[in-house]
Specification:
Blueprint (H helix, E strand, L loop, with lengths): L27 H6 L3 H38 L1 H5 L1 E2 L2 E2 H38 L1
Antiparallel strand pairs: 1-2
Length: 126
């Protein structure tokens, strides 16, 4: 019977295949670099995603830029209204639209970077 001060002996358990060669990963970046079919699919998916984002932002901006003058044309009361002595169309088209453009551009950059992060995750996950 072992004494109280004796500790049980530690045993290291290892797999019998510790000397086996490890299979190297074939990274997704290599697929892209070598322009394999899978690499082309990866790049095409990124380009389509970024194109879809760009087209949606451009469409929204075109609707605003073309829609505001049309709105002022269709509703003449808005065209003659004044805010602090400044005609409303001038105030909207010259003053308020540019901060909106900056905001949309900021959102676009955030979305484009998010798309690229998802792409990198997809390629590295493989």
């Amino acid at each position: 019977m072992p004494g109280l001060g004796d500790r049980p002996r530690r045993v290291v358990v290892t797999s019998p295949r510790t000397t086996a060669t490890k299979r190297r990963r074939y990274p997704g970046t290599r697929e892209i670099d070598e322009q394999t079919r899978l690499g082309v699919v990866y790049i095409r998916s990124l380009v389509r995603t970024q194109l879809r984002l760009a087209l949606s932002v451009c469409t929204a901006l075109a609707c605003v830029v073309l829609g505001l003058p049309l709105l002022f044309l269709l509703i003449p009361e808005l065209g003659t209204a004044q805010v602090l002595g400044i005609p409303l169309p001038w105030l909207v088209l010259a003053g308020l639209i540019y901060p909106a453009f900056v905001g949309v551009a900021w959102l676009y950059v955030r979305q484009a970077e998010r798309n690229e992060r998802h792409f990198v995750d997809l390629v590295e996950r493989r």
